[in-house]
Write a structure and sequence with these properties.
Layout lengths: L6 H13 L17 E2 L5 E5 L4 H6 L5 H13 L8 E4 L13 H18 L3 E4 L2 H12 L13 E3 L2 E3 L7 H4 L4 H14 L10 H7 L5 H8 L7 H7 L20
Parallel strand pairs: 2-3, 2-4, 4-6
Antiparallel strand pairs: 1-3, 5-6
Helix pairs in contact: 1-4
The structure holds iron/sulfur cluster.
The site of iron/sulfur cluster has 13 residues, from helix 9 and helix 10.
């Protein structure tokens, strides 16, 4: 559907509503409600939990020590803030950085879902427990949250989701930074499709309607570095045409 208004205009309107929002009690203690920032045409859409004190005062996203960790992680893969979209699940500061309440997530989450609808990113990247739980519950329609999802690409309701730890975790536990960095680097893989896709049997099977789209989205246009076919191809090892990206065999083919 073509909209009369551009993405920029629609987000600006949403931001104006957000700035004066009084739907939950957090408006009483905030200085600024923080709108999403970045590239409105981005493929990567980061979702943090909520603004901290520095962000609340300055009226902008990811400043202070947490912003520094995020900038370091992004610099490792040459990813610039201007090429991604960033927003929060909760748009106003949580007093004493307490956990968000269910009613706050429900009322504020509506703004987040509108932003996703407008930006239409290819990858949603929720950061930390609350943003991940909200997104998985919304898109996967079941409570499937576990730490196993961190750093793993998921495909639910035609949306690719890549949950990561929140950058603030590195401030509390510096040992975790290395694992965060490894998970973050996977975003580099997502930047381009698998080099074997044009000649891969999976492309042919998908185009003939024999293969579920999830395989193409999760591997060929997602995490191709984890594809068993890709790994065997790179090592020059035999693999049957009907081998799926996870190493299992596609049934029903002659
Ligand atoms: S199935 Fe694997 S090797 Fe083939 S295009 Fe997809 S990611 Fe690449």
């Amino acid at each position: 559907m073509t909209h009369l208004f551009s993405k920029e205009e629609r987000l600006k309107k949403l931001c104006a509503q957000l700035k004066v929002c009084t739907q939950c009690g957090l408006h009483n203690s905030r200085i600024n409600a923080i709108c999403g920032e970045g590239n409105v045409h981005a493929r990567f859409f980061f979702i943090a939990q909520a603004p901290g004190e520095t962000e609340d005062v300055a009226g902008s996203m990811f400043l202070g020590p947490t912003g520094k960790v995020l900038d370091e992680l992004m610099a490792e893969i040459d990813l610039e803030r201007s090429s991604v979209y960033m927003t929060n699940l909760i748009k106003c500061r949580l007093p004493k950085n307490r956990k968000p309440k269910t009613e706050e997530k429900n009322s504020c989450g509506k703004y987040l879902l509108r932003e996703i609808e407008i930006v239409k990113p290819e990858f949603l990247i929720p950061l930390g427990y609350h943003a991940t739980k909200f997104i998985l519950t919304r898109y996967c329609r079941e409570n499937i949250l576990s730490s196993d999802f961190v750093g793993k690409l998921i495909y639910c309701s035609t949306q690719k989701i890549y949950p990561l730890r929140h950058p603030s975790a590195a401030l509390y536990n510096p040992l975790i930074k290395q694992a965060m960095s490894l998970d973050f680097r996977k975003i580099s893989v997502f930047r381009k499709p698998c080099k074997w896709y044009p000649t891969c049997p999976m492309k042919k099977y998908f185009e003939k309607g024999w293969l579920d789209k999830k395989w193409v989205e999760l591997y060929c246009k997602g995490d191709w570095a984890s594809c068993k076919r890709y790994q065997l191809e790179e090592n020059g090892q035999y693999h049957p045409d009907r081998m799926l990206p996870d190493g299992s065999l596609l049934n029903g083919l002659k």
